[in-house]
Amino acid sequence: MPLALLRRMRTKRPDRGSGLKIPLPVGAGAFSCEVLDPVGQALGGVEVTVTETRGAARTVAKATTDPHGLFLATLEPGQYTVLLTGSGLQPNRLTVDIAPGQSEPPRRVQMEPSQQLELPPPGTWLFDPPHTAIRFIARHVGMANVHGRFTRFRGGIHIAERMEDSRVEVVIDASSINTGNNTRDAHLRSADFLDVDNFPEIHFASNRFTWRSGPKWTLQGPLTMHGVSRSVTLDTTYLGAVNGGYEQELRCAALATAELHREDYTLNWRNMLARGIAVVGPTVKLELDIQAMYRNHDTPTPPE
Asked: What is the pTM assigned to this prediction?
């Protein structure tokens, strides 16, 4: 049934070719394409690079498809290589010949998902603190960024037999915040911000794993900070699993990011400059750069 539905979706797509007329420079031609995702829907944001096939292989056009999956370039007569690339997708390479005055209907190009990395085996994986970082970026006075990190945390990943049933949990010591400035760090620990005396921990526990494409996953779950819980989404890239480290133990890695809004967690401290610019911006970018070790009776304890 899904395959039949997919076929119907594809057959119902409008033909964009016959109505596409563009003015061409004298002696030039045009190349256009409509890029589709693996299920046949228009795919914006795919990078398209057009390169001469002869001579110095010079790049003559480079852009991304529009929200309708379309790309168009006027070109001098000759032969070109067109390379299409996108996150989580296999590169697609075409060879096109451009003739003077030629404006062919858009060529439909369907992208395929990139080969998925082998997933880590089921079991418990514990964060390796010396090789894991929890960082954040906040806007400062409307033009610069403050970079910081939390230096004390614990957590791990439970990989289930079915990856979508897996779980991640992270517990962060809020007082370990470090931005490289003692005065600022003391202020961030105070009741104006994290209020670490009353809320000593920041906690995240996922309740959903969703595969997007290639190595890309989405993790969702409640993040509790400053006594408030809000559901957040972590955009996650799985980086693979290898044997290596202290004693060649099995470990895996991932990079996850999220954008948090301070006021969602009642971190409402405000101070404005004379020209009406907030000293601290309303959003914070959170980044978890994780290495985790497979946990069994032979797993070594990471050094402090």
From this structure: 0.63
